[in-house]
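INPUT
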Amino acid sequence: MGRSPCCDENGLKKGPWTTEEDKKLVDFIQAHGHGSWRALPKLAGLNRCGKSCRLRWTNYLKPDIKRGKFSPDEEQTILNLHSFLGNKWSAIASHLPGRTDNEIKNFWNTHLKKKLIQMGFDPMTHQPRTDLFATLPQLMALVQLKDLLLIDHPLDHQTTRLQAEALQLAKLQYVQYLLQSSSSTSSSSSNHQNGVVSSTASADIELINLLNSLPNQQLLHHHHQFNNSEFSNMITSSTSMAATQPLHHHNHILLPPLCDPQEEEEQVPFLTQTTTTTTTATNGNDCNNNNDINNNNTNHNNNNEMMNSWPVEVLPSPPPSSLPQTSISNPTAGGGEGTSSSSSSYAGGVTSYNWTELFLDEPILSEISL
DNA sequence: AAACCCTCCAACCGCGTCGTA
DNA sequence: TTACGACGCGGTTGGAGGGTT
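OUTPUT
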């Protein structure tokens, strides 16, 4: 387990390489090969540690290194390989002739990761992000806090009613998130490093509490009221579906639509609504036809087809269920890294609700959250 | 013009693994 | 089997350069 001594222990030079140093290194290796990296600097007349020489050679000076921008094909390959290799940069680099692991790692960190995030995908799992739902409790707390503040400064009846609706809407979305947690927990063995799953029991309890807290008319308003058996069936079906369906389907919410978009527009004026005409006709088809993301063999192809469509918006494919569903679509372009701005939509009309506008665009909420 | 901010990437650091005595 | 040296990998840093205010 010996560790290489640090360069500055011996007063060796660190930092950027000069052209003379480069020349010395290249000349020596071309004449003698690198042999022992530890011995090389002395033999080559360099005041550097062997590690630094190796790095300089492998990342910069080696003759077969390809420099310059990554081609779309290379970008595609990196994405595909990363989706099942993870941060194994050297393994990825071995599939890209002339590219170094360091270069690929930098390219990933500065470009591809951000690109995936902006598209609403988790760069580690390559699945639609779920952190919006993780923040829902806080969002709901904010709405409730706002209600409290308004006790001293009551607004008109219409406004408070809208706030209440927003809160109920948030609760419904959170219920969906918890449902999903329940299902993905039971299939967590196939869900690598997703980090979404909490305790099934606590999620279920929270779920039931939330459902109880929703007024009946809220559910009626949304065209359906769940009884106990339906509710159990829903969990069961979403669980079994999660166990048999592709990973990215875990992030679909298997509930009826929250409400009729037209109706909602009338009743909740500040709830913005964008209709996504599926620019992704081909994407959608591709996704629908590639439900085997769990399977490494087809995972590759799936990603290929999905990513080939850049920069076109990618919508997650709907689950093979007769139930309408909500899903996470990618935030609008230009959304910054780490933004929680997202939208939920449901198939068959593909209507998106902008949560940021729903909760955070109101001045009072901005004040609270700041 | 200057200050500030952001992005990019070469290089460093620390740890794990491998080979060998 | 163990200890040690060397190498390779992945995460992180820091400075250069470009853009913005």
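end of record. The beta strands of chain A are 273-275, 326-329, 343-346, 351-354.
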